[in-house]
UniProtKB/TrEMBL annotation:
Originating organism: Canna indica
Coiled coil: none
Protein known as: ribose-5-phosphate isomerase
EC number: 5.3.1.6
Keywords: Isomerase
Superkingdom in the source lineage: Eukaryota
């Protein structure tokens, strides 16, 4: 199975479980396609999920991801995590897309949380965020160049 891994702290919980199932042999022959090296790549490597890319695996059987808001009609807004372009590239190769949501993302209407507010990183977050953004762009270029 080719698994697309969205960039999300919530979907990262699924990674831990996938890692456990691989280790005890319940899951086999799984490779993953990353949507960010800097976040999900490290987490996937840490739990032993083999990594691949769209060059060798152009069809993704299943991707998991999260969202920033979900309304009562299940419309979603994504992208606050900073990897939405890579996620769209991987999701474009998808057969199935599963969104893992906890209740903190439920809103009465899209835009009801502070998503629309101007986002200002704290000064201390600046350097790590720009490094993360750069790494994400590199991973994305690698995906798109395939
Ligand atoms: O859209 C995303 C990344 O582009 C994320 O899925 C979204 O920001 C939610 O992330 P988290 O699970 O960490 O709250």
């Amino acid at each position: 199975m080719v698994l697309g891994l969205g960039t999300s702290s919530t979907a990262a919980h699924a990674l831990d479980r996938i890692g456990e199932l691989l280790h005890c042999g319940i899951l086999r022959d799984v490779v993953s396609i990353l949507t960010s090296e800097w976040a999900v790549g490290r987490a996937a490597a840490a739990v032993g999920i083999p990594l691949a890319d769209l060059n060798t695996h152009p069809v993704v059987n299943l991707s998991n991801d999260n969202t920033d808001e979900v309304d009562p009609a299940l419309n979603l807004v994504k992208g606050q995590g900073g990897s939405v372009l890579c996620e769209k590239v991987v999701e474009g190769a998808n057969r199935r897309f599963v969104v893992i949501v906890d209740k903190s993302k439920f809103v009465s209407r899209l835009g009801a949380s502070d998503l629309g507010s101007p986002w200002r990183p704290s000064p201390s977050a600046g350097s790590s965020l720009s490094a993360a953004s750069e790494a994400s762009s590199m991973a994305c270029r690698a995906l798109i160049s395939s």
